[in-house]
Design goal:
Blueprint: E1 2-7, E2 10-12, E3 19-21, E4 23-27, E5 30-35, E6 43-48, E7 52-56, E8 58-63, H1 72-79, E9 84-89, H2 92-111, E10 116-121, H3 140-146, E11 152-158, H4 161-166, H5 169-180, E12 184-187, H6 194-201, E13 207-208, H7 214-222, E14 226-229, H8 236-243, E15 251-253, H9 260-265, H10 269-278, H11 283-290, H12 292-297, E16 314-318, E17 325-331, E18 334-338, E19 341-342, E20 377-385, E21 394-403, E22 406-407, E23 414-419, E24 427-433, E25 440-444, E26 453-457, H13 460-472, E27 476-481, E28 484-490, H14 502-519, H15 526-531, E29 541-544, E30 547-550, E31 555-556, E32 560-563
Parallel strand pairs: 1-6, 2-7, 8-9, 9-10, 10-11, 11-12, 13-14, 14-15, 20-24
Antiparallel strand pairs: 1-4, 2-3, 4-5, 7-16, 16-17, 17-18, 18-19, 20-21, 20-32, 21-22, 23-24, 23-26, 25-26, 25-27, 27-28, 29-30, 30-31
Helix pairs in contact: 3-5, 7-8, 10-11
């Protein structure tokens, strides 16, 4: 006897594109039959799928659990009702804070969930060696060891693509260690093209999930890269360029970085599916990019299709396929969600060893007072320009007065101030332009990828208020306006995650998001735009605890340009 019969529904074949009436039989964790309605024998339980589509569980081939601000168990509880039954998680946020022990903890926490969580070994810890200080360091021997752990399948995104292209020995030794294991090699190479792209791919790296022009997306697909499209990549012109090809290349739809409040209000991979369809990708192609293609990418041949002998990771959809309206979810034959809600109790907060990880004893009295060795007068300074759409930042300049060695920046610009939180007394700052901001500030320890204490603000008073709130919480995000804290999200797990419930984290992150918008920081993904100001492998200029980095040149850039007369 079968355990479950799903009857009355219509199965969508990701192989042929057909939709056909069938009953799906489940025994244990597997699909034991896809049969004509009413046939195939008895079942202990029947699930009525009348009027619904039966599709494979969604698979996320590139994401970071820490970006939800949740630990693995609450993350699974929140995303399973959205149809996400499998993820390849790259824990490079918490590993940059706490190293190998953090990866061990994440894997163990993930194994306790009904969601399949497989893992990639962070390739860049720190993200840009020699240009920043993180809380940990992984070399080729660490990568070699970590790839032997159960549940580990990949070398996670190789972000320092300039090091790969230039032949940097450290980066190449990490890649070679992964190749010897036969691991999946995931990439991160925004805008890389031509000879440099070939040099990068010649190492064996064969995917990219970053934002590129339509021409570069096609070039990467043409050369055999698995194109992974997250929300910011799903522009209509990109989709048109791919559909114009003689054959649509293999695609994966991925989330990369989504906060808990976004998942709760908009969705997870189901949301990315809707975004893809809105951008012009046919619904069947979007479904393949959520199921079969990522299954092949992750070398998980037991899933990604509704077929006998495959793992019973199944999603029942209401309405048309393009709506990706998830109702019921099975993971390994277990009903884990129904009616858009988890079918099991939310897990209790997990014990963790990553409290008190923000090693900043307090703010000096002169914090955010920008001192320079310049004569009184007006000077030109390098600045970062942000935009409201993506995480691309470009160098610009601003004229500011200097009086008695202090830059008079208040009232003229926002200032990003980075303080090392890993026991080193390093600070750096840069003006930030591109947003119309009032009196306010945001401080975060969720700051890619070293997760130092980063404060962005327009007045010293607001910056101090936000920073002190985060230090009191031993990590997190806080927004201050007019000198008073108006929203805060405590992230006591390494300064990047919360041990609280998914609902609590979603509510807190939503308030922070709203307050950022009210301050004037209006961005498609405000958490990512703030937290990537320090991501020194993301074009084109960033700031670390040691100074300003020209990402493309992989070199320092001067803060002072010249004097104005």
């Amino acid at each position: 006897m079968h355990d479950i019969r799903i009857s009355g529904g219509r199965v969508v074949s990701v192989f042929t594109g057909e939709t056909f009436a069938a009953d799906v039989l489940v025994t244990g964790s597997d699909i034991s039959g896809v049969v004509p309605p009413g046939t195939g024998g008895e079942a202990a339980r029947t699930i009525d799928a009348t009027g619904r589509l039966i599709v494979p569980g969604f698979i996320d081939a590139h994401m970071h659990i820490e970006s939800s601000f949740l630990t693995p168990a609450p993350f699974a509880w929140l995303t399973l009702p959205r149809g996400t039954t499998t993820v390849l998680a790259d824990p490079h946020e918490i590993v940059n804070v706490a190293g190998r022990a953090a990866m061990r903890w994440m894997i163990d926490a993930g194994q306790a969930t009904p969601q399949t969580q497989v893992w990639g070994v962070p390739s860049c810890v720190p993200a840009l060696a020699g240009f920043e200080h993180s809380g940990a360091h992984l070399d080729a021997s660490d990568v070699d060891d970590l790839l032997k752990w159960d549940g580990v399948r990949a070398l996670a995104e190789v972000m320092d693509y300039r090091a790969v292209v230039s032949g940097d020995p450290r980066m190449h030794s990490v890649i070679e260690a992964a190749r010897e294991h036969g691991a999946i090699l995931d990439g991160h190479c925004p805008g890389l093209s031509g000879e440099e792209l070939s040099r990068y791919m010649a190492t064996g790296i064969d995917s990219d999930h970053t934002k590129n022009t339509p021409e570069v997306v096609v070039e990467k697909a043409r050369l055999g890269m698995t194109v992974m499209l997250q929300e910011k990549c799903l522009e209509p012109e990109v989709v048109r360029a791919l559909l114009a090809l003689p054959q649509l290349p293999p695609l994966c739809l991925v989330t990369d970085d989504l906060a808990a409040d976004h998942i709760l209000s908009h969705g997870h991979l189901d949301h990315i599916g809707r975004v893809a369809v809105a951008a012009g990708l046919p619904a069947l192609d979007a479904l393949r990019a959520l199921t079969w293609t990522p299954a092949q990418r992750l070398r998980l041949p037991d899933r990604g299709v509704v077929a006998p002998g495959k793992r019973a990771d199944l999603v029942l959809l209401d309405g048309a396929l393009e709506d990706f309206a998830v109702d019921t979810v099975l993971s390994g034959g277990r009903v884990v969600a129904s009616g858009g809600r988890a079918a099991y109790d939310e897990p209790a907060p997990a014990d963790h060893p990553f409290a008190r990880s923000v090693h900043v004893p307090g703010l000096p009295d002169d914090e955010y007072r920008w001192r320079v060795d310049l004569a009184d007068g007006r000077h030109r300074f390098r600045a970062l320009r942000v935009n409201p759409v993506d995480t691309y930042t470009e160098p610009t300049e601003i004229e500011l007065d200097v009086v008695d060695g202090l830059v008079q920046w208040e009232g003229r610009t926002a200032l990003c101030w980075v303080r090392n939180r890993h026991g080193r007394d390093h600070t750096a700052c840069v003006p930030v332009t591109g947003m119309d901001l009032g009196d306010g500030a945001v401080t975060t320890t969720y700051a890619h990828d070293s997760h130092n204490l980063v404060t962005l603000g327009t007045t010293v008073t607001s910056m101090r208020a936000a920073a002190q709130a985060v230090l009191a919480d031993e990590g997190g995000v806080a927004v201050a306006r007019d000198g008073a804290v108006t929203a805060r999200l405590s992230l006591g797990v390494g300064g990047v995650m919360s041990a609280a419930s998914a609902q609590h984290v979603a509510d807190a992150s939503s308030r922070v998001r709203d307050e950022l918008g009210a301050w004037g920081w209006r961005h498609r993904n405000p958490f990512m735009s703030v937290s990537t100001l320090t991501l020194a492998v993301s074009p084109t200029m960033k700031i670390t605890d040691l100074g300003l980095v020209d990402v493309l040149a992989r070199d320092w850039t001067p803060q002072v340009l010249d004097s104005c007369h």
